[in-house]
Amino acid sequence: MPNWDCETSSGPLNFHKYIDGSWAILFSHPDDFTPVCTTELGTVAQLMPEFQKRGVKVVALSCNSAESHKAWAKDVLAYAKLDASELPYPIIADSSRVIADRLAMIDHTQSSGMPMTCRAVFIIAPDKTLKLQIMYPASTGRSFGEILRVIDSLQRTATYKIATPVDWAPGDNVIVLNSVSDTDARDLFPNFVTEKLPSGKPYLRTTADPATPSVFKGWFGF
Q1: What is the distance between the alpha carbons of residues 163 and 175, in angstroms, rounded to a whole number?
Q2: I want to staple 116 with a disulfide (CB 3.0 to 4.6 A). Which of 30, 42, 81, 102 is the partner?
Q3: Rounded distance, CA 71 to CA 29, Å?
Q4: What is the DSSP letter of 211?
């Protein structure tokens, strides 16, 4: 991910210094004082303990001024029913759209007016590499429960030689990578199971979730 200096609702920010050594999520918004964006920012504020539990830095971006962001934050906090004076994460001020354009967040399908950002989500690893990018249209709000699920998967697969299957949730079985031999798999995952398939090929091997379950319990409900 590139670096930049910018103003935010919380003051000046250097992006690389802010996320240094941590997992991070950057999510963009089409405009301040808009209904879908307000619900999203409020939900992220409510979920901050879950992001912090996972060691994830959070930063938002909208194409308005820092002063506009500060005023909007009051609405967001009221909607989320949070008793706080400011949001628990910064909103980048990108009224010039320089950062949004650099990150290809601009929605060029708009038929009129100045192009706005789409609902982009970037998940960034501690080495500052982009691990996931999702683009939503302005009309569709994001599922931050799903984004937390993806972060859990990314953090596990960065640590263990596994992949996560369809509809996986923390605590569910995971898949042993095909690059791991059966011999090594017995050392790494002693109780792994090879699924019996009509082809007879032993490529689908499952094992228990190797991550500490207590860290990830309690937030699923969708």
Answers
A1: 5
A2: 30
A3: 16
A4: S
To which residue do tokens 């697969």 refer? 157
What are the b/e assignments for 82-120, b being 16+ CB within 10 Å?
A: eeeeebbbbbbbbeeeebbeebebbbeeeeeeebbbbbb
User: For the chain, which ranges sit under pLDDT 50?
Assistant: 214-222
State how far the Cα of 5 lies from the Cα of 54, in Å rounded to an integer: 25
All residues at 6 or more sequence positions from 66 whose CB lies less than 8 Å from its CB, including other chains: 7, 8, 9, 91, 93
The tens digit of pLDDT for each residue in 127-164 reads 999 999 999 888 899 999 999 999 999 999 999 999 99
Separation of alpha carbons 68 and 62, rounded Å: 10
Residues carrying an active site annotation: 37, 127
What is the C-alpha to C-alpha distance for residues 217 and 171, in angstroms, rounded to an integer?
Answer: 8
Contact 26, 90 (CB under 8 A): no
pTM above 0.85?
yes
User: Torsions phi, psi of 10, nearest 5?
Assistant: -110, 10
**H/E element, 152:** helix 144-159
pLDDT value at position 217?
A: 45
